[in-house]
Amino acid sequence: MQKRVVFRSKLLPYMLVLPQIAITVAFFFWPSYQALESSFFIEDAFGFSREWVWLENYYELFRDPGYLKSFRTTLIFGFSVAFLAMAISLLLAVAANRAIKAATSYRTLLIWPYAVAPALAGVIWYFLMNPSLGIVAYWLKGIGVEWNHYVNGDQALLLVVVAAAWKQVSYNFLFFLAGLQSIPKSLIEAAAIDRAGPIRRFWSITFPLLTPTTFFLLVVNLVYAFFDTFALIHATTEGGPADATSILVFRVYNTGFIGQDYGSSAAQSVILMGMVILMTFIQFRYVERKVQY
Amino acid sequence: MVENRPILTFLTHAILIVGVVFLCFPVWMALVASTHGPGALSQSPIPLWFGDQAWENYSQLLAGGLPEAGGVPIGMMMFNSAIMALVITFGKIVISILSAYAIVYFRFPFRMGFFWMIFVTLMLPVEVRILPTFDVVVKMGLLNTYAGLTVPLIASATATFLFRQFFLTIPDELVEAARIDRAGPIRFFKDILLPLSRTNIAALFIILFIYGWNQYLWPLLITTDESLYTVVMGIQRMVNSGEALPVWHYIMGTAVLAMIPPVLVVVLMQKLFVKGLVESEK
User: Fold this and answer.
1) Which residues of B touch A7 (CB under 8 A)?
2) Nearest alpha carbon to residue A217 among A180, A267, A257, A185
3) Does B224 touch chain A (CB under 8 A)?
4) Alpha carbon distance B104, B111 (integer Å)
5) Residue A23's closest CA among B186, B83, B87?
6) A86 φ/ψ sector (left φ>0, alpha ψ -120 to 50, else beta)
7) What average pLDDT does the segment B202-218 reach?
8) Helix B248-268 to helix B270-280 angle, to the nearest 10 degrees?
């Protein structure tokens, strides 16, 4: 946890942590406290008066079918993105791990989408799927699928899932590849000598040994899909049509900035913060076991 | 292990090629679309090969700007993005290397308290508590300033952790030797710790630069002044331009321009990038 040999100084360490702590307090703790506080108040539209209402804002949220639907949308969206992005990247990582000679060139071609902003990924897929001139929409029409995410909510959700997963594949790919490379070759060879085929070897040796990576990536992907995809949705579907792609983090923004309902937006923030803290906790409980500090 | 299974080898490459096509195709189409005039992009199917308008489109974008996006030249937006990304990156690296140094190399009251204060912010994205954070910035009078755009995003638990992990692997003998030679903490930091951390700093730089460049919601809220727009957030105004039909050849051109700097950073510094990513997250 700490060095055996340390420097002695009364003031210096405080000076060193000061910038970090000051920014953290000003832009993390203070706003979080504000959110917590205003989630117990109802404020009038002009901000002149506010009234202490206990948990009314929270009750209101869970009675609101729109919010509950948003919860469901978020879960469907999050798990679809995580599953799609992880399945594709695991397949690619296994393949890249086999293609020894060409692995580096494939890697270069596979990792760059990591650098593409979620908003841009969204906009580009939005263009590809555009019902009137998108090339993918045109192909889909060719095989008899009528694509229009402007009116069809499920298709709009599918669009943002694909765009979000597309961007996340490279990240997962790198971690799966690193995980695969750390599996001892002797285990695989022993199984091969026992005449286990490639598929059998994958499911009974490789995949179980990858569990830590898979679990880590699941949490990271869920956090990404729940929170970082705000930009993707805001730049494309804007939560529509008819709230079909309005995930929780988008709703916080919409309620607060467009709807000007501070109490409700704050309550939603608090719920989301709770979710983040829970996920951080799960992550670290798990990681703690394999990484010794 | 040597195993001769031609079908499997074929399948391996087939999978990888399909994967590469899946990842590259959208950007290919963006590139293609950005080289056509509005005519070619008005009827379906749109062309799959480059047009001849590349020069016109890109020079118009970079220097002239679009009325749909507030008439700000994309060149200007990219300049703003670069400033934002660099300030966030440098700021994060500086404050987190200092705090990691204090937490690892000093013993002082509330040390663990500070550590946990930084720790809990690890995964809390700004989107989650956007409204109150925005309020704080408004109260400080930082709207429409570079400071408001960057400072709130500078706190970084991830970078602090990476440096802390790295410092813990540095042998204690170095500190002892430094103390015998009567080097104080500042001297030790400057002459020993910083040079040793060079690779880590470079790897972090890549990750953080991408993070900074790709910010979206924060600039969207903090900048109402068009001369402060950043490119990743500016594109949104073109897509959702209300009544007017989106001008796809310009939008795709902007998208391509906006992704060039971070993609170049990743591709050119691939080794460092992979190292930084895999280590900073574990």
Assistant:
1) 105-106, 175, 179, 184-185, 188
2) A180
3) no
4) 9
5) B87
6) alpha
7) 89
8) 80
Percent of chain A surpassing pLDDT 90: 16
3-state helix, strand, coil in chain B (%, to 5): 70, 0, 30
Specify the pLDDT at position A78. Answer: 93
Write out the DSSP string of A56-87. Answer: HHHHHHHH-HHHHHHHHHHHHHHHHHHHHHHH
Contact: B107, A6; criterion CB under 8 Å:
yes
Q: What would the DSSP string read from start to end of A158-211?
A: HHHHHHHHHHHHHHHHHHHHHHHHTS-HHHHHHHHHTT--HHHHIIIIIHHHTH
Residue A183 phi, psi (nearest 5):
-80, 125
In whole angstroms, how far apart are CA A20 and each of A5, A34, A87? 24, 20, 38
| CA B242/CA B119 separation, integer angstroms | 42
Q: Indicate the DSSP class of residue B46.
A: P
Nearest CA in chain B to A186: B1
Integer Cα distance of B89 and B99 in angstroms: 16
Considering the segment(s) A61-290 as one domain, its CATH architecture is Orthogonal Bundle (1.10)
A68-104 pLDDT tens trace: 888 899 999 999 999 999 999 999 999 888 877 777 8
Mutant choice from B7, B128, B161, B282 vs A, greatest count of A C-beta within 10 A: B128
The per-residue pLDDT of chain B, averaged, comes to 84
Q: How many CA atoms lie within 13 A of B220 on its CB side?
A: 21
Q: Does B148 contact chain A (CB < 8 Å)?
A: no
**φ, ψ for residue B106 (rounded to 5)?**
-130, 155
**Domain segments of chain A: what residues?**
61-290
Query: Looking at the predicted structure, is the pLDDT value of residue B282 above 60?
Result: no
Q: Quick check: helix, strand or coil at residue A258? A: helix
- B109 touching A, CB under 8 A? no
Taking CA–CA distances from B210, the nearest residue in chain A reads A115
Residue of B nearest to A290 (CA): B282
Please give the domain boundaries of chain B with CATH numbers for all domains: 75-280 (1.10.3720.10)
pLDDT attached to residue B2: 60
- Going from the C-alpha of B219 to that of each of A81, A116, B74, B143, the distances in angstroms are 26, 17, 15, 10
Q: How far apart are CA B245 and CA B237, in angstroms?
A: 12
Average pLDDT, chain A: 84
CB A109 within 8 A of CB A174: no
At A232-273, the pLDDT tens digits run 998 888 877 888 888 888 888 888 888 777 788 888 888 888
